[in-house]
């Protein structure tokens, strides 16, 4: 089983109040020089092989439901078992 990741972020010109709140909290805790933009991550388990057609289908799903493309951008990537293991996630 493969895992496809859809990362959704606010467009750069869109105000990100959650990101600003986290940035402020980090600065108060002594983590200077960091700026946060908060987004969403969707992990999609795919039965079988991840083909170009399957990725196109996932992009359409992201555009239709997972992201509000007026104010957000999204990126679709295939996560390998090695990447998942490196992040401490089950493959």
UniProtKB/TrEMBL annotation:
GO molecular function: ATP binding; phosphoribosylformylglycinamidine synthase activity
Predominant subcellular localization, coarse grouping: cytoplasm
EC numbers: 6.3.5.3
InterPro entries: PurS, PurS-like_sf
Role of this protein: Part of the phosphoribosylformylglycinamidine synthase complex involved in the purines biosynthetic pathway. Catalyzes the ATP-dependent conversion of formylglycinamide ribonucleotide (FGAR) and glutamine to yield formylglycinamidine ribonucleotide (FGAM) and glutamate. The FGAM synthase complex is composed of three subunits. PurQ produces an ammonia molecule by converting glutamine to glutamate. PurL transfers the ammonia molecule to FGAR to form FGAM in an ATP-dependent manner.
Subunit structure: Part of the FGAM synthase complex composed of 1 PurL, 1 PurQ and 2 PurS subunits.
Pfam families linked to this entry: PurS
NCBIfam families, alphabetized: phosphoribosylformylglycinamidine synthase subunit PurS, PRK05974.1
Class of enzymatic activity (EC top level): ligase
SUPFAM superfamilies: PurS-like
Pathway(s) it belongs to: Purine metabolism; IMP biosynthesis via de novo pathway; 5-amino-1-(5-phospho-D-ribosyl)imidazole from N(2)-formyl-N(1)-(5-phospho-D-ribosyl)glycinamide: step 1/2
Keywords: ATP-binding, Cytoplasm, Ligase, Nucleotide-binding, Purine biosynthesis
Location(s), subcellular: Cytoplasm
Name under which the protein is recorded: Phosphoribosylformylglycinamidine synthase subunit PurS
